Amino acid sequence: MERTNPITPAGFAALRERYEQLFAIDRPAVVEIVHWAAGNGDRSENGDYIYGRQKLRAIDRELGQLSKKMKVAKILDPSRQEDRSRVFFGASVTIADTDDVHRTITLVGDDEADAGAGRIGWNSPLARALRGSSVGDVKTVMLPTGPKEWEVIGIIYPEQAG
């Protein structure tokens, strides 16, 4: 059974842009190099040919992965969320730990997660704990170092365009 993968419109656009870059620009350039290198004679000791083939396989593998991700992606626009009082996909959530350290995170698709930029994947432990929460709720997450509690301080969704 295939699983669907929630993703924001911007995240899906980034996947598609990467796919198009690889398919239309990077792959043809490597194919041209491999073709040129193949014409230079003995392929067994031809570094350009060998490296080009390896690069081509890596590009084809990434194209396959991106294609699968886009096929199961379910684009969800967080600006269309009706219940903005609770944490759902696409919410930017301000949380505070027991030391009163505040942090703002945005719940996004797993393929567009970037913890350093404050975007955490929808299926991460913290995101799963926060789902459905309201301001004032305290959620506990099991970390490798033990349980940690966070209180939901604020919930914001992007505004709808137009």
TrEMBL record:
InterPro entries membership: GreA/GreB_C_sf (IPR036953), Tscrpt_elong_fac_GreA/B (IPR028624), Tscrpt_elong_fac_GreA/B_C (IPR001437), Tscrpt_elong_fac_GreA/B_fam (IPR023459), Tscrpt_elong_fac_GreA/B_N (IPR022691), Tscrpt_elong_fac_GreA/B_N_sf (IPR036805), Tscrpt_elong_fac_GreB (IPR006358)
Biological process per Gene Ontology, one example term: DNA-templated transcription elongation
Domain Transcription elongation factor GreA/GreB N-terminal: 5-75
Annotated GO MF terms: DNA binding; RNA polymerase binding; translation elongation factor activity
Keywords, comma-separated and alphabetical: DNA-binding, Elongation factor, Protein biosynthesis, Transcription, Transcription regulation
UniProt xrefs under Pfam families: GreA_GreB (PF01272), GreA_GreB_N (PF03449)
HAMAP family, A to Z: GreA_GreB (MF_00105), GreB (MF_00930)
Official protein name in the record: Transcription elongation factor GreB
